[in-house]
Specification:
The structure holds two protein chains of two kinds. Chain A is built from no helices and ten strands. Chain A is mostly beta strands. Chain A starts with a strand and ends with a strand. Chain B is an all-beta fold. The chains are: A mainly beta, B mainly beta.
Chain lengths: 109, 117
Amino acid sequence: GQNIDQPTEMTATEGAIVQINCTYQTSGFNGLFWYQQHAGEAPTFLSYNVLDGLEEKGRFSSFLSRSKGYSYLLLKELQMKDSASYLCAPMDSNYQLIWGAGTKLIIKP
Amino acid sequence: GAVVSQHPSRVICKSGTSVKIECRSLDFQATTMFWYRQFPKQSLMLMATSNEGSKATYEQGVEKDKFLINHASLTLSTLTVTSAHPEDSSFYICSARNSGLDYNEQFFGPGTRLTVL
């Protein structure tokens, strides 16, 4: 079956760095997306990885290891507005995104 | 960037009525759109995949006669919740795949919060 595993909740301090891990199992693989979702809002795109390695985009970076079925999202210089849920979504062989429940990130001053 | 709109953003209706939700890709063509439902503190659940000019593909457990999907053009898909009941109250989100991109990013609309009394 298809499966996503992320921590349910994480807490970090403003200005710090946090890494959100994701392991996945899918039928085929066509890349992995990370989305941010604030409460009551739709998800917004953060990053896309299709090859192994690190993709950096400003304060956010995303890493992928296809052989391990593993990805992480790294958030630097945390701000209060980064409090949200972070969704790891691999794309399967049918180009469908597979969604888990996401990781709720709480930022404390 | 690619923008997807949804209308209405919020709707309250009486049990037994039908509600139509529109999803539009504003600056790109989308041969494929997706309809999701999300209950509080739960993950996005794919309801159906909407393909322009053809019938939608429904996920297991989603009643196609209750959730009518029409994708009549490359920029518009509609979801009609027929004979809505309180258990249909949820956050409905559409997304659209940009046909012109090399990779298959889905751009999400802002969502529609449906409350059935």
